[in-house]
Amino acid sequence: MAIVKPPLRLLQTLLRFPNEFVGERFLVQESGLPTRVVRRLLSRLNLNQLLIKEHREGETYYGLKLEGISTSLLKLIREFLIEEENLIQNYEKLEIQQRIYKQQLEAKENEAYKASARFVTYLNALVFLEEISSIILRSQTFSQVFKEIFRRLFSAVNYEIGVAAILEDKLNLYIIRKSSIPRDLIEKSIYLTKEMMGVTLSLPYLLQDYIIMEEIEEAEVAPSGKIQHRIGTTFQKDPMTPGYITLFRIEDEPFLADEKQVLDILATQMALACQNITALQKIQQLAITDDLTGIYNKRYFRQAFWKEFERASRYNIPLSLMMMDLDHFKRINDKYGHQIGDVVLSEFAALVLEMTRSTDIFARYGGEEFSLILPHTPLDASKEIAERIRSRVEQYAFPGEEFPVHCTVSIGLAMNKEEYKSPEELISSADLNLYKAKTMGRNMVIYS
Ligand code: GH3
Ligand code: MG
Ligand code: MG
Q: Dihedral of CA 72/76/77/82: which sign?
């Protein structure tokens, strides 16, 4: 049985209506072939002079010239049509296949592109993180840590103002801004940071008390006026105290989730860096503090005195030094015990510390000897201070076990002179005066 191909169906359709005109739409309907195929076949048939084509009222009508068609010609037509149809169908199949392949290829390309972009981003992030953490972990001060973080963040996050806030004695704010950012926007960002920090950490007092350390980054950005966007994160400055970092954007383009993520990842690094610094500061503090009295020890005295002497000599400014020694301290130990002796020593330190300025450096020189450096202080002024210390100690009732303990102090005071070439000379001079005070009867101030 011969397979009836669609083109044959068309021919059959036409043959069923010999000499009649049949509309194109009708042929499509009857033969079940697509319009395109019918048109093409009809145009081929037309070439063979078999078809009569007429246009009536805007439609195309076809008729078939039956006379003159031989069986062999009919057979040829049939074969031609079958061939033609196969070709068309194959072509269509190929076209569809090609379209599918193209789509698949595009999808694969897209996937590969995304994967490589993701990889590059990931790699960049790793390099960035590695760089930033090694630098901030080596930083020795909070201001170094935040300077590095802010500087490096400029390459990863688009922002114009950065504010880091940590609680030390006060709330310290470390601020970076691009140079073109006006002052009022900085103030706004400080306000917002404090507000956010206050809200996040429930610390309302933060709104008044703070110190600012500012860093300005050179860059050309024209601020459009107001702060549009911000992202922030908390980090653990030390186990007890949180810190806060906020980035502000003036351009009206929200921060991306990726940018927030960078900041969040950095929170861990910042916490580590800050904890290192806190530990370092504690160790440094311990290394220069006297255990018993809590004031500076001799090590720090030497460092500080050498520095002050150098500065005073260079700029020709007055510098006074007091050496103090408690009188007959051995007796106090003998009479009341070593423990009471210790109490007297630490009370004495507290008493003197109270009477000094924040720029003075008071240290335990050893045993029951103390030294007080008075920068920018001429002899007139330091004499008065020494006398006030002496008389205060004389009148002070140190707490004993049963009765209050009384103790006096001898003070040797000296001021720097042009002929002193080394700090030791000023120390010797103060020491000599102390020795004189002792030999002249104690409980007195001798100066030169
Ligand atoms: P002077 O008036 O000549 O200075 O007499 P002094 O007894 O104070 O001087 P001396 O140098 O003979 O004795 C110092 C004493 O200070 C001896 C020592 O036991 C005591 N001393 C030194 N360091 C400490 C300390 O840390 N605690 C106590 N309780 N006593 C100390
Ligand atoms: Mg002594
Ligand atoms: Mg003594």
A: positive
